[in-house]
């Protein structure tokens, strides 16, 4: 069987504001995971439109075309699907956006999938080979990552990515923030489950080099699993980055183990510096937590912080941008990711805003967290968009990068702060040149050096 898998380009990736490096970070892991279920004699090609241009007309027609649309790549995904369907390929689509809006996707696909793929996908493959594929498969309640076939990393063009070693060892998360895709995606079954620790360690062992990036929603979400994983990783000589919550950082014990196993930077969803917003959005796990103590604890451990913030929540007024940036700079946070609140279809937030008639349009291209797609409560849409861009500019001004570095606990950390924050945002032409050379992976040793040279202090402060 001839199979073609495509991760279509996000709309913003084709705009002039596009930051190529952001889309040359991670390979298409979801599709490479699904490819693991194919037979060894299937002919399979995996393409990622963020890092390679596709000339659809020149491409051969496969028996099966597999697409993974995200919300802002939905339009492009449907274009690709229509093209290949007209030529006789069977088109299968799944993932987050399809789960949110299966009927919309079904107009462009022969088969759609909702929820995580691991149970329905092998069922479909069998029925497709038998000539009786169904129109729709829903992930059932029995979800497990046991016995997962190895991810087909041989299909990934490693040299095109800064972080070729991305992996996930769990699915979902134990929390229920109402702006998040998570509850809708995992509806009808378990919404947080992990691999067996030995399987996760075997997956890590298969990855070349030192650097890893865990894309799990919340790597520290299951304490027992995380403890065993980090204990198993200690001594492997890995350096890694991941995501977790404020609450898990403040819990004694876990961060220490993560750091000893090689954690050097953590993505943390702070979201807002206002508790009333947190309660409204059901981000209960953040309420009443001492954010500054979490940052201090990470820094004391030599772990850098990538802080995520959302603007435009109902309790936000026009002062939210300056307050948030000022707070983040004062803490010495190395990198920040800002978002305009975006109601993804099928989330709790979507339902609330729709009921209040506050959704402005359904142009999915603009649901990229950079555009205002709803009527904000505490400011105008214009103020929100302008404030969002200003926050990015202000946070990454050299003056603020220096101030942030000065807030670090020691000289090594200050240097690392300058190298990491400055390198990420201030050397765009160098990144572009690297991408044009089609050897982005050459910058990986530099990233590893930045993470190692100054990281890994041994004394970690207890939560304060
Ligand atoms: C890596 C990542 C990125 C990378 C993507 C690059 C890449 N090559 O994949 C980059 C940095 C580009 C990125 C950008 C953004 N991202 Co992002 N990203 C992720 C992240 C952390 C991991 C994705 C991943 O690899 N997961 C692991 C694999 C195994 O799972 P998967 O891809 O979902 O695939 C499985 C299933 O979905 C399903 N499946 C998928 N496709 C198909 C197809 C078929 C046929 C079948 C059967 C099954 C199936 O089976 C797969 C195996 O289980 C997720 C969070 C998460 N943990 O998933 C957020 C996430 C996808 N991102 C999100 C967001 C909001 C964004 C941004 C808008 C944020 C921003 N402003 O910067 C942008 C733009 C995205 C957009 N415009 O829609 C949201 C998406 C919300 C939504 N409803 O679309 C997520 C879910 C984070 C969150 N918690 O809110 N992101
Ligand atoms: S903690 Fe993160 S992944 Fe979990 S529900 Fe909240 S936003 Fe989603």
Automatic annotation (TrEMBL):
InterPro entries attached here? Answer: BchE-like, Cobalamin-bd, Elp3/MiaA/NifB-like_rSAM, Methyltransferase_Class_B, rSAM, rSAM_horseshoe, rSAM_sf
Keyword terms: Iron, Iron-sulfur, Metal-binding, Methyltransferase, S-adenosyl-L-methionine, Transferase
Cofactor dependence is on:
[4Fe-4S] cluster
| Domain Radical SAM core: start-end pairs | 159-377
Q: What is this protein called?
A: B12-binding domain-containing radical SAM protein
**Upper lineage:** Bacteria, Bacillati, Actinomycetota, Actinomycetes, Kitasatosporales
């Amino acid at each position: 069987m001839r199979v073609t898998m495509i991760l279509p380009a996000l709309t913003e990736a084709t705009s002039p504001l596009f930051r190529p490096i952001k889309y040359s970070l991670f390979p298409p892991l979801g599709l490479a995971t699904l490819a693991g279920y194919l037979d060894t004699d299937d002919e399979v090609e995996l393409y990622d439109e963020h890092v390679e241009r596709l000339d659809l007309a020149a491409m051969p027609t496969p028996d099966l075309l597999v697409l993974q649309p995200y919300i802002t790549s939905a339009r492009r995904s449907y274009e690709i699907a229509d093209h290949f369907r007209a030529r006789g390929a069977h088109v299968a689509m799944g993932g987050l956006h399809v789960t949110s809006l299966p009927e919309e996707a079904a107009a462009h696909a022969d088969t759609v999938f909702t929820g995580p793929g691991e149970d329905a996908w092998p069922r479909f493959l069998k029925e497709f080979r038998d000539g009786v594929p169904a129109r729709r498969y829903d992930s059932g309640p029995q979800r497990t990552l046991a016995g997962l076939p190895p991810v087909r990393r041989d299909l990934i063009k490693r040299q095109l990515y800064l972080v070729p070693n991305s992996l996930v060892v769990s699915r979902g998360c134990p929390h229920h923030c109402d702006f998040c895709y998570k509850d809708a995606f995992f509806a009808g079954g378990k919404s947080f489950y992990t691999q067996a620790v030995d399987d996760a360690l075997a997956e890590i062992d298969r990855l070349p080099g030192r650097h890893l990036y865990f894309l799990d929603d919340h790597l520290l979400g299951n304490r027992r699993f995380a403890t065993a994983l980090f204990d198993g990783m200690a001594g492997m000589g890995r350096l890694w980055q991941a995501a977790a919550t404020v609450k898990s950082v403040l819990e004694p014990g876990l961060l220490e183990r993560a750091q000893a196993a090689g954690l050097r930077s953590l993505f943390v969803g702070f979201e807002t510096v206002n508790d009333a917003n947190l309660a409204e959005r059901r981000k209960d796990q953040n309420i009443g937590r001492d954010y500054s103590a979490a940052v201090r604890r990470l820094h004391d451990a030599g772990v850098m912080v990538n802080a995520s913030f959302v603007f435009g929540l109902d309790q936000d007024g026009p002062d939210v941008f300056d307050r948030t940036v000022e707070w983040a700079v004062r803490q010495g946070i190395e990198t920040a990711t800002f978002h305009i609140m975006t109601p993804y279809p099928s989330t709790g937030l979507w339902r609330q805003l729709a009921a209040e008639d506050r959704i402005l349009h359904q142009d999915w291209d603009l649901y990229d967290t950079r555009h205002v797609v709803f009527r904000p409560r505490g400011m105008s849409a214009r103020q929100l968009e302008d404030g969002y861009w200003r926050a990015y500019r202000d946070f990454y001004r050299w003056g603020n990068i220096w101030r942030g570095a000065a807030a670090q606990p020691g000289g090594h950390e200050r240097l690392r702060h300058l190298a990491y924050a400055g390198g990420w945002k201030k050397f765009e032409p160098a990144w572009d040149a690297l991408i044009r050379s089609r050897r982005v992976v050459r910058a990986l040793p530099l990233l590893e050096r930045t993470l190692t040279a100054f990281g890994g202090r041994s004394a970690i402060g207890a939560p304060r």
